[in-house]
Amino acid sequence: MKLDSKAMRHLTAEDWRVLTAVEIGSKNHEIVPTPLIESISKLRGGAGRVHHSISALAKVGLIARVKEARYDGYRLTYGGLDYLALHTYASKKVMYSVGNQIGVGKESDILVVADDKGKQMILKIHRLGRISFRTVKANRDYLRRRQGGSWMYLSRLAAEREFAFMRALHEEGFLVPTPISQSRHTILMSLVDAFPLRQIASVPDPAALYAELIGLILRLAKHGLIHGDFNEFNILLKEETIEPGSDDSTPQEKKPPARKGKEVERPPPVVFGDNQPPDDPSTKNVKVTPVVIDFPQMVSMDHANAEYYFDRDVACVKRFFERRFHFITTQPGPFFRDAKKSVGKDGARRLDAAVEASGFSKKALKDLEAAIREQQKELRGPDGEPIIESDEDEDEDDDDADDSDQLDEVDSDKESNDRETTNGDQSPLVNNMAKDERRNSVNNSEQFEVGISKLDLKDST
Questions:
Q1: Could you tell me the pTM of the whole model?
Q2: Which pLDDT band holds residue 61 (cuts at 50, 70, 90)?
């Protein structure tokens, strides 16, 4: 589903109160009875005012009435949960406007948003259950115990866990987006000036980049973590043009990494337009730095299936470099048994323990891991290769979510405003690929749509 925040400016304080009442009532009710909504919202106008707000919310799809229900009631939709999260950010004054959607997947939607000063950020909206709703609901005991198991609940768990890992990694100095705030099933983070690795046709030094990515896997392992989905979809490459004669120029020549590999002879890749020949010197002084994203599936090095996830991450990197850059390493490994020995060495902080100590319960972890496993079965082929889907797949199962767990109320705590803001011009390393391969790239020249939706909390006049 697509987020349209234009209706926010027309919602009154009473509407927000009723929408929150439906959210709270969803904790113990698949369909929240209308009398319970009246009781929780406690509007001064009584039942008549509650029914007026219910009608306004249902009209814009924030709540929905279930046909053939045994009693009169409503359920919270994903649109309603989206609005409650946006309302929280607006109340904290960390978000002011919503721009274009720049990415859509089976598990989340990515949008560009901005604060009141025009600083651009990224809003990630988790939408677990998009493709495997019926499968997980049928196969998982924990969902059957929850009386019709809520994908909204699982999406909130995914957002909380990803935010916790992102914050821990950022504090430890890993190159990840700057975490700003988290509300319900959404995460607000900095906008990174980078391109997905899957859109990159050529790099100055494949061996150096390969060594750096393998080094990232080993560095994560040293801190007790395995990414679990370390592939070209979840790695961004930042570009930095190095001026000739600077201290950072030709860094690969100064400090070459281990290069036990070979590049298969191949025709030069087409990375430029017709007016730019392949030997254009503009790419000779480009430094690329990987940035890792997407963390809800991260697991500890002590996880029961840790070796499987570790080996899969390594295999994903090797397979992509062989297919895209025709680079084949001749050095075996790295191996899980060796990475396991490095956990906590040299004073490395155990980030898996830090995230667990932050309050993410074992029950919540069990629920989330079960859902993510089912998601990844749908998204991967028999050999573990990510399956590329069309970006235009619609979310047909969002409205099938039945129940919602208790969600945190709006607080007044302010989050850090340290963020990256704009994205540069088109990369010289980006291939002229198919439209569906370019759709998710962020372009600084692309402005917000005319009539951008502002998160107006006051009544419309």
A1: 0.72
A2: very high
CB 41 within 8 A of CB 102: no
334: preceding bond cis by omega (within 30 degrees) = yes
Listed in sequence order, the residues at least 6 apart from 99 whose beta carbon sits closer than 8 Å to its beta carbon are 111, 112, 113, 114, 120, 448, 449, 452
Q: Which of 80-89, 164-173, 271-280, 341-350 bottoms out in mean pLDDT, i.e. has the lowest?
A: 271-280
Alpha helices in 6-100 (DSSP H): 13-25, 34-41, 46-59, 78-92
Which residues are known to be catalytic? 229
Q: Which residue has the tokens 């919270």?
A: 76
What are the two backbone dihedrals, phi and then psi, of residue 399, each rounded to the nearest 5 degrees?
A: -75, 0
Q: Per residue in 274-328, pLDDT tens?
A: 334 444 444 557 788 999 999 988 999 999 899 999 999 999 999 999 999 999 9
Q: Which of 60, 153, 166, 152 is nearest to 122 (CA)?
A: 166
- Asked if 181 and 314 touch (Cβ cutoff 8 Å), the reply is no
- Taking a C-beta distance cutoff of 8 angstroms, is the pair 35, 42 a contact? no
pLDDT, one tens digit per residue, over 373-414 is: 666 665 555 555 555 443 333 333 333 333 333 333 433 333
What would the pLDDT profile of 113-125 be if each residue is shown by its tens digit? Answer: 999 999 999 999 9
Which two three-digit tokens encode residue 24? 């709270």
CB atoms within 10 A of CB 35: 13
Q: What is residue 239's DSSP assignment?
A: E
Tell me which residue of 200, 198, 182 sits closest to 121, measured CA to CA: 182
Q: What are φ and ψ of residue 448, in 5° steps?
A: -60, 155
CB 238 within 8 A of CB 288: yes
Given a contact cutoff of 8 angstroms between Cβ atoms, the answer to whether 403 and 143 are in contact is no
User: Is the per-residue pLDDT at 101 higher than 60?
Assistant: yes
Instruction: Answer whether 263's CB lies under 8 Å from 321's CB.
Output: no
Q: Which two tokens stand for residue 265?
A: 């002879």
What single-letter DSSP state applies at residue 430?
B
Note whether 77 and 19 are within 8 A (CB).
no
Assess contact for 29 and 73: CB atoms under 8 A: yes
Euclidean distance between CA atoms 425 and 431, whole angstroms: 14
Tell me the average pLDDT across 58-64. Answer: 95
179: three-class secondary structure by DSSP: strand
Tokens 């891991």 appear where? 369
Which range is least confidently modeled, 9-18, 210-219, 424-433?
424-433
CA distance 83 to 78: 9
Token pair belonging to 218: 């080993």
**Total residue length of the chain:** 461
